[in-house]
From TrEMBL:
This is ABC transporter substrate-binding protein. Belongs to the bacterial solute-binding protein 5 family. It holds the Pfam family SBP_bac_5. Keywords: Signal, Transport. It comes from Microbacterium bandirmense. It comes from the Bacteria.
């Protein structure tokens, strides 16, 4: 069985994402009468997302904020609580064989790319083949053996093993459907897209781009979906990495909407502007690896004791201003295979002391802990862990390092790596079983992202089996994954801290639609929403 692994692109964006994810990226669904400048058809936005590439195939970073308005996948994955799991996009219907090895997608008739090309099955196949070959997230297509257009509007995927190709086809990375003409041009010139070319089917076209400064989107006149058409003629976006600056632009009336407002200021900004504050699930999860290769953390009882000594709610209150929920393991709320039934540790210092005494450590010991210096939330909550552990006799020596530095160090020499490694993680697409549960805790001789170094064949077998069931029997896969998450609780190779929430300041004169945790880096400027 081939499964996905954690990806090094996290190293490039983790610092920026730390600010983005918990400070207000929103899935926007404004109506035509909402914005302050609605009479002009212009929406002005301060957005924190940078553009690393305009190539929809290689895209693997925060430009996803814009990509989701320019391009469409075969399917959109709906947020938790929606009546349907998916909303049809380029594919109007789909089905899978009983064994999960063959997936058939019927392509929507009458759709055109922004360059005038017709969307058909051959165009979809070309996009998937390009993604398999060179996408930043090409690994999501690992289960695919072959893909073919059996007629003008039918695409058939043949898999090496059963896999959830509906989730793969709805990915925010590596799954956009792109004009074949543009793909051919990019094959001849790798910089083809970088001048600001777009070749999607989405509700907007890329009107202009000033690197590091401005992105202007324009409504696509021939967009296929009349019911979900753009509500604005123009979306004028100022790239504003600094959240304080974005806040000032919003409160001064320079923009209609800001994707990022400092968490500590959201209430005051809402009061000042007559806005409301909304929260939603996000796919962003904080955890702490224990180095299970070194004493005393090679003892599960010690790891359990330390798990009882974490003041979880205090971490949420201080780290993200209360905008989070205690984690049920490493799978974030709202993402498959999350379950409320997975047990959690409570804050219980007496129980922690009892377990340490039973494990032979009544006087405690000293540990080292590292966290990413570029992550402000970690800088705020890590001292609380240190202070609480001190109350049970455990002294923690804390080091702040750039994430990529501590990551390389931990991979290179596990025996001499830090005892506790704070990690901020999210799945590449909406399957945290094949990503989070595998990437973070599956054993391997040369660890890539399992920096607990925990090795448990029973756990490995559970998640490997679940991965083969997800495409054909999702309920059975869920049951297997829940058993595996129960093992993570019992054996405690990590501290499962909290799932961060996305916070949106919603101005009174805007209608901001439901944030979709499956597309955390995309702000939608057209109403791509399922029925509630």
């Amino acid at each position: 069985m081939v499964v996905t692994r954690a990806r090094s692109r996290r190293l490039a964006v983790v610092g920026l994402v730390a600010a983005l994810s918990v400070a207000g990226l929103a899935a926007c669904s404004p109506d035509s009468g909402a914005p302050a400048q609605a009479d002009t058809g212009i929406l002005t936005v301060a957005a924190s997302a940078a553009v690393t590439t305009w190539d929809p195939v290689s895209s693997f970073s925060t430009e996803a904020l814009y990509m989701g308005n320019l391009y469409e996948p075969l399917l959109w994955k709906n947020p938790e609580g929606a009546a349907e799991e998916f909303t049809p996009a380029i594919a109007e219907k789909w089905e899978t064989s009983e064994d999960g090895l063959t997936w058939t997608f019927t392509i929507r008739d009458g759709v055109t790319f922004h360059d005038g090309e017709t969307v058909d099955a051959a165009a979809v196949v070309a996009s998937i083949e390009a993604a398999r070959e060179r996408a930043g997230a090409s690994f999501i297509w690992a289960p695919l053996d072959s893909v073919e257009a059996t007629d003008d509007l039918t695409v058939v995927m043949h898999l090496k093993y059963s896999a959830p190709m509906d989730l793969v086809a709805a990915s925010t990375y590596g799954a956009w459907i792109v004009s074949p003409k543009a793909l051919e041009a990019a094959a001849q010139d790798e910089k083809y897209f970088e001048a600001g070319v777009d070749a999607g089917t989405g509700p907007y076209v890329l009107d202009s781009y000033e690197p590091g400064s401005k992105v202007v989107l324009k409504a696509y006149e021939d967009y296929w979906n009349d019911d979900k058409a753009p509500n604005y003629d123009i979306v004028d976006i100022s790239i504003t990495p600094d959240a304080v600056t974005a806040q000032q632009m919003l409160t001064a009336g320079e923009v209609d909407f800001a994707t990022t407002v400092p968490l500590e200021n959201v209430e005051s900004v809402a009061e000042q502007t007559g806005a409301t504050v909304r929260t939603a699930n996000s796919p962003f999860n904080y955890l702490g690896y224990f180095n299970t290769l070194r004493a005393p953390l090679d003892d599960p009882a010690v790891r359990q004791a330390l798990s009882y000594a974490v003041p979880y709610q205090d971490l949420i209150d201080v780290g993200v201003q209360g905008f989070g929920t205690q984690a049920h393991g490493p799978v974030p709320k709202g993402i498959f295979p999350y379950s409320d039934s997975v047990p959690q540790y409570t804050y219980d210092l007496e129980r922690a002391k009892e377990l340490l005494a039973e494990a032979g450590h009544p006087d405690g010991f000293t540990l080292t802990l590292s966290y990413a210096s570029e992550n402000p939330a970690e800088a705020r909550f890590v001292p609380l862990i240190k202070d609480s552990f001190a109350k049970i006799g455990v002294d923690v020596e804390v080091t702040a390092e750039l994430f990529n530095q501590q990551w390389e160090k931990a991979k290179a020499d596990p025996q001499n790596a830090q005892d506790i490694f704070i990690v901020y993680y999210w799945p590449t697409y909406s399957d945290a079983g094949s990503d989070n549960l595998y990437s973070l805790f599956h054993s391997s001789e040369e660890p890539f992202f399992n920096l607990s170094y925990w090795n448990n064949p029973e756990y490995d077998a559970l998640i490997e089996n679940a991965g083969t069931l997800t495409g054909s029997d999702r309920d059975a896969a869920q049951a297997e994954y829940e058993k595996a998450m129960g093992m993570l609780y019992d054996q405690a190779p990590g501290l499962y801290l909290f799932d961060a929430q996305v916070v949106t300041v919603v101005p009174e004169d805007l209608k901001i639609g439901q944030f979709n945790e499956n597309y955390p880096f995309t702000t939608f400027f057209a109403p791509i929403e399922p029925a509630a």
